[in-house]
Write a structure and sequence with these properties.
The chain is α/β, with parallel strands linked by helices and 376 residues long. It is built from 14 helices and 15 strands. The chain is 36% helix and 19% strand.
Length: 376
Amino acid sequence: MMVPDLAGRLHAAPTANGHTPPTGARPSSSNSSPADDQAEVVAAAATLRLRPGGTFLLDGPTTPPALWGRDGQVLWARDESIILCGPAGVGKTTIEGQMIMGRLGLRSEVLGYPIEPGAGKVLLLACDRPAQIRRALARLVTEADRQVLDDRLVVWPGPPPKDLAAMPELLVHLARAAGADTVFLDSLKDVAIGLSDDAVGAGLNRAMQACVAEGVQVAALHHQRKGVGGARPKTLEDLYGSTWIAAGAGSVVLLWGQAGDPIVELVHLKQPAEEVGPLKIEHDHHAGVSTVTRGFDVLRYLTLRSGGATTIGVARAMFERTEPTDAQRAKARRQLDRLVREGLATTLSGGASGGAGGTSGTVFVAVDLARREQVG
């Protein structure tokens, strides 16, 4: 819903270069400059995005709806971009291909988490070695899928026509031209030059945000800086380039391992809701599909322990550390609390929270075990 009076004033207001755009569209003119044309596009787009405050604040969901995820564990939230990062050869394009098929309605789950099919087309900017991307995605489909692929998937092989950081509005225009409600960028280093420059990072973030604001979902592949001594990156600061690249993303997922490894680690570096993982992912390089081989399942852990477990005990098992950090204990506690809220676990004793800083505390037990103990 637009605010008509304000929209009219924006249409009539002069832009930074003094040009006053007309209220209606006009044919292109050889006398108009690129700056004038760009100013008209920006001014027209501004009027389409104005919203009354009550609508914006009160009519949206209170928790992020999952495009990919379930039960509060959200890998990709609607209207928030996702960045899938990692070193070369760990299966980023393999995961991307499964996500694309999910948005096309050809897969219902990726890594065991439901993925929501899109209503529109999918635009893939296959910039980084398009031939390899084609071979990776072709593993997932057969001739029987040709009609869906022709109708729903649009591919741009090679780099975009202009640098997306220098022309942020280009990405949403490409999505509109393709009729797409989802865009995959493979990869960020190929759509903008000089990612370590904050101006470039901010411009690229702006391009992705413009798509999201128009209801176009964005997923991007990216790389991280080399870890010291081969250690796994642990924070968003370990991503390559400007801090603004990850700052605008709703979710950042890291794949970590050696190039060509069939089993790699998935770490959720930035979460729109509850954290997913860490998970161990096995890639079937022949079929192009990936499965979770060893993700820590808190409920299963409780089920196998007749006496239950405290927060620190779960944290030790989850992160394979004798002395888990405060942050790791807090993550374990959040998952335990979620199981209690969902009626899958209960507590047997009071006392200390068992959270950060404590070695003893509340004992959490799987509900079925607790019921059997009560009967006994």
